[in-house]
Amino acid sequence: MGRRVRAPLPAEVDEVRTKVERWRLQRKCLGLMPEKVYADLLSWIGLSMQEKTQSPFNSLSREELIIRAEKGAAELVEAIKELVFQNEEKAKRAAELELANKELAFQNEEKAKRAAELELANEELAFQNEENLRLHEQLFQTQKMESLGLLAGGVAHDMNNVLGAILGLSSALQDTQVTDSPAWRGFDTISKAATRGGKLVKSLLAFTRNSLAENMVLNLNEILEEEVQILARTTLSKVRLTLDMDSELRPIHGDGAALTHAIMNLCVNAVDAMPEQGNLTLRTRNIDNEWVEVVVEDTGSGMSKEVLKKALDPFFTTKEVGKGTGLGLSVVYRTVMSHGGQLDIQSEPNNGTRVGIRLPACGSACMPMKSAAEPRPKFSPGALSVLLVDDDDLFQGSIQAIMELLGHVVEAASSGEEALVKLETGFKPDLVILDMNMPGLGGTGALPRIRALRPTLPVILCSGRIDQTAIELAGAHPQVTLLPKPFSMGELQEKLSVITASNG
């Protein structure tokens, strides 16, 4: 007969339900170990029969309860393992997500970095393009200057021979006329025209100079003072002049004549920009122990940006026809470059113009540019035997006529080779007038041979282009005097006077 089990009372049912729910909760609790569940079940097994009948397990035998407990413990262990695995997977996915976020953040930083680098590269490229454009414009400007220089060098010699013949004869014939007579004024006009043409040729020749025609220690303050004296007698009647010169100005090495001509061009341009009235400021100062600066500043009409861009172009001018050649600033530019300097021009319409010239300094204190000029010796009237060497018939004929007017005897030669033959065959002149630029040996090749034949024979070396080569050639031989073409009879007389006095 089967075993009868008493049905639990309602209060007991609630208690059993509570225990069962507690047991279920225990299976879900992560912090509860299987051993604790197993122990709770074993403690239940040890309960009294009455107590067991009040449990949901009262229908089970002891062995079944143990099996059930072990099975529940195993299930709990597996559940906990599964939950731990799931939590580990969640943690792993969270770590992977965090790593992905970091990688994404790194990639974003790399993108931002590359974007910044790209922006910097674009800025650098834009700067390089601007610099290339500037260098291209500078190269184009330099090529134009060099082209003009080649053109000037090609025609200067022949042009100076023509002007030399005109100036020499007109000045000689002018001296034979009564002062201020119509003939005298006519020859004077011819002489002035030839002189102006000579200055224009010299301006053109300035473009061919990549080196200094002479290299002396110069005081720019002295050059400015000489300019002021000239301006005061000519163009400063309506312009107020201000001098601001550094008394401790360092000296420079340079070509005094070229710098004087450049500064005079700037001053004339400044005065022309102030036809009614204005202020002209000349300033000198030392800069950074390496540079000396000369500033020419005016309060005149100024220049627009378009005009300023073309200001250094040869033959560009805004002046009326006949009042400017357009070579002034171009000559200034070439002069400054040949001195290793820098040129800066700032100008605005109706706000004047400021031109700054920076030249390399060569010392800590100024030195005199030159000593006081000694009085020239008077010309000796004694007749000279002169060997005139020039390949240009026009120039040769004019100089021969001038020398004969002065009472000298002239023997002409058309080349350096012909002159050497005359000397080797016994001709003994008192003086040689030698042209630098001729076919064949020319003056450069003939002078050393002339000096070898006649070591003490005075030589006047003539050239329409007095450059460093001519200066070095003259300096390498004693009793050699340079005389640039074109020259007047008076300038030739001065050279003859010096030579005669030194040999008298």
Features:
504 residues; alpha/beta; 5-stranded mixed β-sheet; 14 helices; 12 strands; 55% helix; elongated; disordered N terminus
Portion of residues in beta strands equals: 5-15%
Residues in helix, %? 55-70%
- Reading side by side through the largest sheet, how are the strands ordered? 2-4-5-7-6
| Rg for CA atoms | 53 Å
Low-confidence stretches: 1-9, 27-35, 45-53, 364-381
| Average pLDDT taken over every residue | 76
Mind explaining what this structure looks like?
This protein is an alpha/beta fold and 504 residues long. 55% of the residues lie in helices and 14% in strands. The longest helix is centred in the first third of the chain and has 113 residues, at 62-174. 29% of the residues are buried.
Task: Outline the secondary-structure elements.
Layout: H1 10-28, H2 34-45, H3 49-53, H4 62-174, H5 182-205, E1 216-218, H6 220-234, E2 239-244, E3 252-254, H7 256-272, E4 278-287, E5 291-298, H8 305-310, H9 328-338, E6 342-347, E7 353-360, E8 385-389, H10 393-405, E9 409-413, H11 416-424, E10 431-435, H12 442-453, E11 459-463, H13 468-475, E12 480-484, H14 489-503
Parallel strand pairs: 2-4, 8-9, 8-10, 10-11, 11-12
Antiparallel strand pairs: 1-3, 4-5, 5-7, 6-7
Helix pairs in contact: 2-4, 4-5, 4-10, 6-7, 7-9, 11-12
